[in-house]
């Protein structure tokens, strides 16, 4: 008897024309590295007395909503598609190059994102194929580091109609392009307008919390939407540039004078930007780009590295939350790639 082969798996997705109308032939396929889709059914119960030592029980199905957190490699077209699906829209512009590309720009938009269908497959001899309909992306976490140079995106997916059985895989093929790399941003990681080469990790989180709301059925009636929140975390080395950044936040100046004490007021907003430019096998930029911009960031004051009798690498983690600056969007992603404006 064969066991399911967990190393054989794949993930597809496509936009639906409407809620309640699954996309049976999703056009996007992803390089999935972690995570899964789950179908946690919640059951309700009411005990009642029946003149015995063991109370009676009434049981019912309370809710059945699917969720997924697949880790996906940030290949250019697929990364752009996921961000478009989460916000529910984009603007596009021609990039003349050479080579010619299309720029996909995503900023925060009101309302729900696009309703999508995700398809999962695990195993071969013992295969499990499921279709998760009426799905929305409520959050995306994007990260990269010196230790894990392949940039990845982890969407949080809420499925209102999960777990439909499928007979076969969708036809969409695997992406042919390599993922964006952390080192594609060398000398283009910027904190508060200063370039940091001693920048060893970033994690950006774009969250539009979605809460299921129920009416007279165990099915979801609608989704309540919270305000968009964007967080950023970066790891910096405690070198001269890193020390100046820490002191600027703590003292209000990168070069505090002797006797100066930490400031007791909120300083001006900072900013954050990275610009990843993919390269071909010869190391030449191929035109695929990923630019992430936070025009305003409220940074938390981090702790300095602890002393260590064993030595080690001195780093600190800088955490912040995006703030609007005038009419500038809370966040903006610009991805140059070969895909035309997305429709499906």
Tell me what you see in this structure:
This protein is mainly β. It has one domain (9-39, 60-166, 176-337). 7% of the residues lie in helices and 47% in strands. It contains two helices and 23 strands. It has helices at 76-87, 240-251; strands spanning 9-15, 28-30, 32-34, 37-38, 41-48, 56-64, 66-68, 71-73, 91-95, 101-106, 116-122, 128-145, 152-165, 189-191, 194-195, 199-207, 210-214, 220-225, 229-237, 270-279, 285-299, 315-322, 332-337. It has a 19-stranded antiparallel β-sheet that branches. A two-stranded antiparallel sheet has the order 5-6. Strands 17-18 form a two-stranded antiparallel sheet. A hairpin with a 7-residue loop joins strand 5 and strand 6. The longest helix has 12 residues, at 76-87. The protein is globular. 31% of the residues are buried. The mean pLDDT is 96.
Question: What is shown here, in short?
Answer:
The protein is mainly beta and 344 residues long. It is built from two helices and 23 strands. It starts with 8 loop residues before the first strand and ends in a 7-residue tail after the last strand.
Produce the secondary structure layout.
Elements: E1 9-15, E2 28-30, E3 32-34, E4 37-38, E5 41-48, E6 56-64, E7 66-68, E8 71-73, H1 76-87, E9 91-95, E10 101-106, E11 116-122, E12 128-145, E13 152-165, E14 189-191, E15 194-195, E16 199-207, E17 210-214, E18 220-225, E19 229-237, H2 240-251, E20 270-279, E21 285-299, E22 315-322, E23 332-337
Antiparallel strand pairs: 1-2, 1-11, 3-8, 4-7, 5-6, 7-13, 8-13, 9-10, 10-23, 11-12, 12-13, 12-16, 14-15, 14-20, 16-19, 17-18, 19-22, 20-21, 21-22, 21-23
């Amino acid at each position: 008897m064969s066991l399911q082969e967990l190393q054989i798996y794949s993930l597809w997705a496509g936009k639906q024309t409407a809620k309640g109308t699954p996309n049976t032939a999703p056009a996007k396929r992803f390089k999935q590295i972690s995570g899964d889709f789950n179908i946690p059914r919640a059951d309700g119960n009411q005990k009642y007395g029946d003149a015995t030592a063991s109370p009676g029980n009434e049981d019912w199905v309370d809710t059945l909503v699917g969720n997924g957190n697949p880790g996906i490699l940030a290949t250019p077209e697929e990364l752009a598609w996921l961000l478009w699906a989460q916000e529910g829209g984009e603007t596009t512009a021609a990039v003349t190059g050479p080579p010619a590309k299309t720029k996909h720009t995503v900023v925060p938009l009101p309302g729900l994102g696009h309703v999508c269908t995700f398809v999962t497959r695990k195993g071969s001899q013992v295969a499990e194929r499921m279709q998760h309909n009426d799905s929305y992306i409520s959050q995306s976490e994007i990260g990269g580091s010196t230790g894990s140079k392949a940039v990845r995106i982890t969407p949080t997916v809420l499925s209102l109609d999960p777990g439909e059985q499928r007979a076969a895989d969708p036809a969409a093929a695997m992406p042919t392009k390599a993922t964006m790399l952390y080192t594609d941003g060398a000398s283009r990681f910027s904190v508060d307008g200063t370039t940091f080469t001693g920048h060893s990790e970033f994690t950006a989180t774009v969250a539009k919390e979605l809460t299921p709301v129920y009416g007279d059925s165990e099915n979801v009636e609608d989704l309540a939407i919270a305000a968009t929140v964007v967080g950023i975390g970066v790891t910096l080395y405690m070198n001269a540039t890193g020390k100046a950044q820490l002191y600027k936040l703590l003292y209000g100046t990168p070069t505090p004078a002797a006797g100066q004490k930490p400031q007791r007021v909120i300083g001006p907003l900072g900013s954050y930007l990275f610009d990843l430019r993919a390269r071909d096998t010869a190391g030449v930029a191929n035109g695929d780009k990923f630019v992430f911009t936070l025009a305003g960031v409220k940074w938390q004051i981090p702790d300095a590295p602890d002393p260590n009798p064993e030595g080690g690498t001195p780093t600190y983690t800088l955490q912040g939350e995006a703030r609007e600056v005038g009419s500038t969007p809370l966040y903006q992603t610009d991805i140059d790639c070969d895909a035309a404006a997305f429709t499906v």
